[in-house]
Amino acid sequence: MATAHKDTQVSDQISIGPRRYGRSMETRRLGRTEHWSSVAILGGAAFWDASPEATKGIVEMALGAGVNHVDVAPQYGRAEELLGPQIALHREELFVACKTLRHNAKGVRAQLENSLERLHCDAVDLYQLHAVTDMDELNRREDAVEVLLQARDEGLCRFIGITGHGLTTPKTQLEALRRYDFDTVMLPINPRLFGEPDYERDVEALLEEVRTRDVGVMAIKAATARPWGDRTPTATTWYEPYRTVEELTRGIGFALSTPGVTGFCMPGDIDLVPNVLEAAGRSVPWSDEERTQAVEDVRSEPPLFVHA
Questions:
Q1: Which of 89, 116, 228, 238 is deepest in the core (most CB within 10 A)?
Q2: What is the pLDDT of residues 26-58, one digit of tens each?
Q3: Phi and psi at residue 196, in whole multiples of 5°?
Q4: All domains in the chain, ordered by first residue
């Protein structure tokens, strides 16, 4: 499994296909896990129905760019099955994270064991409660949390976390941290969402608690443009993503400049991977003025999440 390190430079010059990446992939400490994660996290949803050949190529591309963290779930189609052989080949290089949507204790345990088998792992580095968006869902996952805690004690996972989608996610995760000893959180962060004052306030409150507890933070939806609405999707993501390096740099740069954020999960479309890696390689500190401008630039975009 990937080990903690403090070297934020992977290589001086990385060649991926026709592109040449002159900057190394930045790494950041993922809270008390002590893993120094690449700021770009390979999202398993991209492999929903990929071919084994495409999966191998994308994994090698990501590794070549300095990615050392992969996040997958049983709900991502064939992703576990396709990624398993590649994880087996590169286990020492990768921090492997997985998730569960289940509530029943026996069901959660069975799903964890099945994921371990598919991923060719004796243990994963991080196991997460998936898609806990509101307080009602957090309450329904009480038995599932106990399974995660036990799995961590048994060594089937090294750390446990919680993920969520939606406007009530940061407030829900704040309560989850007060109830349970989670090591990480994963939540949506992008300029359009920070145009919602209540959401920005709730994220700031969560990040303050995160700092106190030394919890790792991962962003999702950094590359989100807008909902598909009535239009025919032209990508495999459930939302329309940004595509150009410049647009992706705005969303990714915003997420990575949010204090406390370690990295972002790459969008679930393998065709976007080259541009996303290039945008991630451009990560630099942002000023408050640049963050404010990014919010203004996308304020007219329709919201991804419906207000409660």
A1: 116
A2: 999 999 999 999 999 999 999 999 999 999 999
A3: -95, 105
A4: 25-297 (3.20.20.100)
